[in-house]
Amino acid sequence: MVDALPPPGDMGSAERRFWRNYNEEADKYDDVLTKSWKGDMDSILIFAGLFSATLTAFIVESYQRLEPDSGDQTVLILNQLLLVQTALAAGNSSPVPLPTRTSVIPEFRPPTSILICNIFWFLSLSFSLASALGATLVQQWIRSYLQDSQNTSPITHAKIRIYLYDGIKVFKMNTIVGVIPILIHISLFLFYAGIIAFFYSINKV
């Protein structure tokens, strides 16, 4: 039975061939997996960047409606001063009370629809930025995943790859990658909801 065992040198050669074949198949699988993830994350980063820039322009416009218009306030004050001057020019001997800020400018309360619109759009921007951050982190992880096991022996390469792949399962990377596009979808739904509220504030049905 001892004579039937392969020489130690042959066993080492077989082991190296095994790990080399394993690495080749594992690298093919990892290449397909990481390319798929990287392609998705690249698309999300581009879309999130363009969408966030567009959404910011809408927020700048809607945010101004949360404060009273300074131009309208100036017109009200000038009208009150004009009334005072007209009364004085007409020879009104009774003292004319000077207008105060509270008597001239009514208390400003932004419409509820504008408040809702801004809430939706700020939430939408937050989800969009969160998706961009998640996509960036996934891309960094992909680069680390592909580079950590380079320039090593076949068995070391295989051990590092197994360790990293176990991390994919433990930290549920597939789920994380799947959640990031959902954040973009939520951001879009909130944006459309904000548009409805914005147009409702302009022209109430």
UniProtKB/TrEMBL annotation:
The keyword Electron transport does not apply. The keyword Cell wall biogenesis/degradation does not apply. Pfam families: DUF6535. Residues 19-200 form the DUF6535 domain. The chain crosses the membrane at residues 44-63, 75-93, 113-138, 176-202. This is DUF6535 domain-containing protein. Keywords: Membrane, Transmembrane, Transmembrane helix.
